[in-house]
Amino acid sequence: MTILGMCRPFRDPWDRVSERCFRCFPCLSDPARRSSLGLKVALVILHLIYVGVLFLFDSDLIEKTKKEPWYTAIYLLLFVATVAQYFFTSGSSPGYVLDAMRAANETDAIFRKTSTTSKQPASSKNGSYVITVDGSQSGKNPLGSNATSWTKLVMDMYPPGSSVRSWTCTYCNVLQPPRAKHCHDCDKCVLQFDHHCVWLGTCIGQGNHCRFWWYICEETALCLWTGILYISYLKANISRAWWMDAIMIVLLVTLSISLIFLLLLLLFHSYLVATNQTTYELVRRRRIPYLRGIPERVYPFSKGVCTNLYEFCFARSSIYRMEPLPSAQELEIKSRPYTCLDVLTCRCC
Ligand SMILES: [Zn+2]
Ligand SMILES: [Zn+2]
Fold first, then answer.
1. Is 169 one of the annotated active-site residues of the chain?
2. What's the CA-to-centroid distance between 202 and ligand 2, angstroms?
3. Cα distances (angstroms) measured from residue 323 to each of 150, 155, 178, 285, 326
């Protein structure tokens, strides 16, 4: 059985805007935020150097732009989109457990206020529990006013008999749903924690994993296109000025290394998405209590490639999705070896 908890946090829109602005324009008095801002500036400068040098040195490209402006326009559009996606991902929320708890408690309180017919705090559809909140009624219940609804929701996702204490984060004292982990850089628990990205200065989790995938996809495409333009320049202008060629070759070599890294990263994250895993779960599989003992080739949270892709693509940072631990019966079904019939019926999809 699959239990899916979804809660929509409806905080004051002004709060959300100010929080986003604060994340985008870090306070310079905070060393962590200062280094994050330094990295962002460095990344933008690096992008500008690669593209600027190309337009500065390559007169053929300028000529081509005059004849076929659409070609350069698409390239520059990809450049702007990649930088914008970087800032968009960097400022997005990975889905903090604390926010999910606040939303779940608000949902429960509102439900109890408005409904008198049912005692279930969540609607059930196709074996999934979906919790929604009406935006107009948000913010009336302070955080933690009814921690038991969160406790019940989370403990339902663990096998019966599990202790609340063993799943409570010792740093933020919050009950963690399955797949959540405390990030020491953000000092918060993150839903479906993937990793903390230093380049972006934020965690990658359930709320922004899709944005992160698109960012590396755009960055790979930009790197590839820029590399092609560099190679075309070197082919046509190899004997003009040695120092120009030297600069272009150095930049092309670093660009090629970045491209290989980005391609591998893109492939790796595509694999994670297709199998519904996170980097943390893959790397620390033997150390995570709920994954210990599960055979390597079994992906406990996978619902088939198509469903995994659908859930990944339509995940929004404003919706918190929590997955329960699979039962022993589900794991047994998933670990069954593939037969010819399974291949024909696309069991993996
Ligand atoms: Zn924590
Ligand atoms: Zn983090």
1. no
2. 5
3. 14, 12, 7, 17, 9
